[in-house]
Amino acid sequence: xxxxxxxxCIILFSIRTGSDRISxxxxxxxxxxxxxLGLSLCLLSLGGIPPMLGFFxxxxxxxxxxxxxxxxxxxxGLVTSVVSIYYYISxxxxxxxxxxxxxxxxxxxxxxxxxxxxxxxxxxxxLLGCVVVTAVGGILSNPxxxxxxxxxxxxxxxxxxxxxxxxxxxx
Length: 171
Fold this sequence. Notes:
It contains eight helices and no strands. By secondary structure, it is mainly alpha-helical.
């Protein structure tokens, strides 16, 4: 959902402006707060900032790696997550912190928001849905992970892998 939301924001911006350069997002919050909010929340979630869904997903993944004694992989994952946060924050800062006179030329010439353009209503609905799942999913992450575990726990493929693992025939 985080990636879908980020791509929906990028596609909406590209449809409206014809630009796909990150530097053209400067000052976007003044012209299109929905895209700014959606992209900001999803980038924070992708970086693993709490209480977003991405944070709990990363914690779950890192705990699973640590429990499987994949220490190097967990450390590499943590380091790359910290590095990615720097880049995500710089994009958010560019969209939100810029003063009106510092906005990019593309944002200054930003067309008025109209839902009559082909593709706009479905993209806006997808954007809103993904933002809600990403934001609320972090708060409700424990029930989501329990549901995912229970959905997978009864599958025959998993049961076979557990049985083979207990016999020592895996790896």
